[in-house]
Design brief:
Among the domains are: 116 residues, Arc Repressor Mutant, subunit A; 52 residues, no CATH class; 251 residues, Methylamine Dehydrogenase, Chain H (7 Propeller), CATH 2.130.10. The chain is mainly β. It is 14% helix and 44% strand. The strands form 13 sheets. Strands 9, 32, 33, 34, 55 and 56 form a six-stranded antiparallel beta sheet that branches. It has a five-stranded antiparallel beta sheet with strand order 4-3-2-1-8, with helices on one face. Strands 14, 15, 16, 17 and 18 form a five-stranded antiparallel beta sheet that branches.
Length: 687
């Protein structure tokens, strides 16, 4: 189809019939609803996705060029090159179609797209009624005619029954699907009490109770106006309280050394039960599955895992989630009819809500990290896909609606009671990267930093000031932005090359090279799992590790080697041409990874608190630096790479964002400062 056809496409779709059928699907182009005849489930398509499907259906059997589709979907508008691809990806996901072996939408290289299945145009309901009247007339016809009809019906009875069922199923669906729901409008109220640095808010579904964490280690229980009722202070950090759906029971976590303990208290914060210590790096809010069972989400070395915890038996059972190895589990939520659902993010950063049988109940085209269930609206409340993480709601039909937009800071926790009142903790802060005179060279309300200073005194760092991960360079008393990529994941690594002329960074699973002005090149790391470490091997080659394999590349992105090498922590000392590795709690170095066990030299035995959540290695002036966590407190360590190989803890405090080593060896810490926080009630407005 030539680019001159968009007008005919527009005319065709405007005059198109309202209902289509193909294979086991029915599509209502008036309501933008897609019905799956196999599962009897309905999806409300986004308007542009529905528009694309309508075009494909009305032009079935014809190859439609990309130019024609772009003009039909976005007339007289300049759009990004991948906008059509994103719509096609969403539509293929709805249809469970595979672009490589398509059943529905075939890509014709250099020409366009072809819709494959035959189309059935579904007549209006009155047509079915007319057919029913005609059937009655046939029954009153002469006997010879009845005999002929009877023979044909007996011969094709199963086909007739199937077709009849399909038709009446379609009638039932298209005549009974609900119209678009009118969601509520919201108004904000401040619950004005100081919550300290961490403030995981939990509202009881039907009782006048709130719970939250104050100043890291205090569990506060108040009424829903903020009046304090009870509290319990612990020796280490506590987090993520969650009320039982009906009873005055509260589950919450306590970080203890390299483990987490799940406590269950009553409504006065008195402990009723404590679990055995569970190995963890991080945890999220638990979900009550029943009176005596909870679903726990625990982050370990391999990512988030889901567990069923029976607290009377102190029994912990891992839940086999319906996900692929390269997909990420985010957390669980108790939703419709008190059932537990699981949130999975795929490699394209799309989120799906699934039950344990793998059935997909909802989809988002961005990663969710903040979510809860609204019993009043029967919807999921979550962050949106913008840089500011505003709150939105989404019904199972696919219809979304706005709730609240942030003016500063960001929402960090979320809870909803049975009448639809939304309680959320909102925080704002300033993070400063400071120079050698302790003056800030860059300040922002960014969510993360990663400053790396070279021997010339230049600092390259990552900032989420714009809501995305961007790379900045501070040089000559000026700050220059080098990256304009809108990725979802943090930039976890930055490294200057030995000549101090190039900068290496990660971008999701890509490796990116910069000079002092812009991006030079980027290429895929070819790892199946997220990157754990990377760096320079020499001036001309770089390396990367996902904890299972180490890859080396030249600066054009050509893979030079792939070595299977499992390690908790690895970096490369360019000056000494040695790998520095942590394995089995010990710090080693070796010239090669291939025969590591034969070559390794023991440098030091590391204490337990230097090993938990170990990350962010730096090599400066013959010293190795890194971070770890212990009882959810951040620690910075230093180890000498020359005898006597001493290991020293040089910093210990909560919420160390990142650190840097100045050219003179001084420790600089990127810290969260000027913290402001409160709890907001976002309440449905009475009409």
């Amino acid at each position: 189809m030539s680019p001159a056809l968009p007008n005919s496409l527009n005319e065709a779709t405007k005059a198109a019939p309202v209902r289509f059928g193909f294979l086991h699907w029915y599509f209502d182009s008036e309501k933008d609803e897609l019905w799956n005849g196999e599962t009897n489930s309905v999806s409300k398509l986004e308007p542009q996705v529905a528009r694309l499907l309508t075009i494909l259906l009305t032009q079935q059997g014809l190859v439609i060029s990309r130019a024609a589709l772009n003009e039909a979907l976005w007339p007289n508008t300049i759009v990004e090159a991948n906008s059509l691809y994103q719509l096609l990806t969403k539509l293929r996901k709805e249809l469970k179609d595979n672009a490589r072996s398509p059943i529905y939408i075939k890509t014709v290289p250099k020409k366009g797209y072809l819709f494959l299945p035959d189309i059935k145009i579904e007549p209006a309901l009155k047509t079915y009624e007319a057919q029913a009247v005609e059937t009655v007339d046939i029954i009153t016809a002469p006997v010879s005619l009845l005999t002929t009809i009877k023979a044909k019906l007996l011969k094709h009875c199963w086909a007739f029954i199937f077709a009849t069922c399909a038709c009446f199923s379609a009638i039932a669906f298209f005549s009974s699907t609900p119209s678009e729901i009118q969601p509520p409008h919201y108004e904000r109220h401040d619950i004005t009490y100081d919550l300290g640095v961490e403030f995981n808010i939990a509202a009881h579904a039907d009782r006048d109770l709130l719970a939250y964490v104050e100043k890291f280690n205090t569990l506060e229980i108040t009424d829903k106006s903020g009046k304090k009722l009870f509290k319990q202070t612990f020796g280490t950090r506590v987090a993520h309280p969650t009320w039982h759906p009906t009873e005055e029971k509260l589950a919450f976590w306590q970080y203890l050394e390299d483990a987490c303990i799940l406590h269950i208290s009553d409504g006065t914060a008195s402990i009723l039960h404590s679990s055995q210590p569970i190995s963890c790096h991080l945890v999220t809010a638990p979900s009550w599955k029943s009176d005596k069972e909870l679903v726990l989400t625990i982050k370990e070395n391999q990512g988030n895992l889901a567990y069923l915890y029976r607290y009377e038996q102190n029994q912990l059972v891992q839940i086999p989630l319906p996900r692929k190895p390269d997909e990420s589990y985010i957390g669980a939520v108790r939703a419709w009819a008190g059932q537990i659902y699981y949130l999975i993010v795929d490699t394209n950063y799309h989120t799906r809500l699934v039950s344990l049988d793998g059935k997909v109940h909802m989809l988002w085209d961005f990663p969710l990290w903040l979510f809860n269930f609204d019993p009043a609206q029967q919807s999921i409340i979550s962050n949106d896909g913008s840089a500011h993480h505003n709150l939105i709601g989404k019904y199972r039909s696919g219809q979304t609606y706005p709730i609240f937009a942030t003016t500063q800071g960001m929402f960090s926790s979320l809870s909803v009671d049975k009448i639809g009142n939304i309680y959320t903790a909102a925080e704002s802060w300033q993070v400063n990267i400071r120079d050698e005179y302790n003056l800030p060279i860059f300040s922002s309300s960014s969510y993360d930093y990663l400053p790396v200073t070279n021997k010339l005194g230049e600092t390259v760092f990552m900032s989420r000031r714009t809501g995305y991960c961007e790379i900045y360079l501070h040089t000559g008393n000026q700050v220059k932005q080098l990256s304009f990529h809108k990725g979802y994941e943090y930039v976890d690594f930055l490294a200057w090359d030995p000549k101090l002329s190039k900068i290496l960074a990660n971008r999701d699973r890509m490796l990116v090279l910069y000079d002092r002005n812009d991006v030079l090149t980027s290429f895929h790391s070819q790892h199946q799992k997220p990157l754990k470490q990377f760096g320079w091997h020499n001036n001309h080659t770089i390396w990367s590790s996902d904890g299972k394999h180490v890859h080396t590349f030249n600066l054009d992105g050509h893979l030079l080697s792939r070595t299977r090498f499992e390690s908790e922590f690895i970096t490369y000392h360019v000056e000494d041409s040695n790998w520095v590795v942590v394995k089995d709690g010990n710090l080693y170095r070796a010239a090669s990874l291939i025969n590591f066990n034969e070559q390794k030299q023991l440098l030091a035995e590391l204490p337990s608190d230097a090993l938990n959540a170990i990350r962010n290695p730096r090599l400066k002036n013959g010293q190795l630096y890194w971070q770890s966590s212990w009882s959810k407190t951040d620690l910075i360590w230093k180890a000498s790479l020359t005898a006597p190989f001493q290991v020293t803890n040089i910093k210990k405090e909560p919420l160390i964002w990142h650190y840097d080593i100045a050219p003179d060896g001084a420790l600089l810490v990127a810290k969260m400062e000027s913290v402001e926080s409160d709890i907001k009630l976002i309440k449905p407005r009475i009409q």
